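Q: My labmate handed me this sequence with no annotations at all. I'd like to see what the chain might look like in three dimensions before we decide whether it's worth expressing. Could you predict it?
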Amino acid sequence: MPFSGKTEAVNIARKIKIPVFRMGDMVWDEVKKRGLKLNDKNVGTIATHMRKKHGKNIWAIKIIKKIKSMEKLNKIVIDGVRNIEEVDTFKRELGKNFNVVAVLSSDKTRHKRALIRNRKDDTKDSKKIVERDQRELGWGLDNVISFADIIVINEGSIDEFKSNIEKIFKML
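A: Here is what I predict for the chain of 172 residues:
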């Protein structure tokens, strides 16, 4: 879910030299290509529109195309999987060693973090944070979480979370 700690996990991957592919970057590129302002409303609208028009796995297909255009990579992190169709596409195209790691935090913790994080497409409006949660659940994020291979609870300190994520990346 938004504000659970995925970005921190991605930063850890980068720190230990694991290439990261962020699905949100594909959406951001599409928003910019259309000449729209980069904000939560436009990002959500375009992400939903493209899924309806091209299939629920459109963003996975775009990421796979990017991955396959590069030299062979031993280990990668894909940030931003939102539905089972994307998971199925990744498993089919990248192989059985594709693992889903879900980072979970309570609504209270996530909403508190939302008010302090300052990413381009973030909102500080509590109502819009709940709307974003509902939108992403509508894409199927709850199914991805329920079928995750590994679940990391992120309610403790940042150091504890970083340590847990580093262990997972090294184990995989």
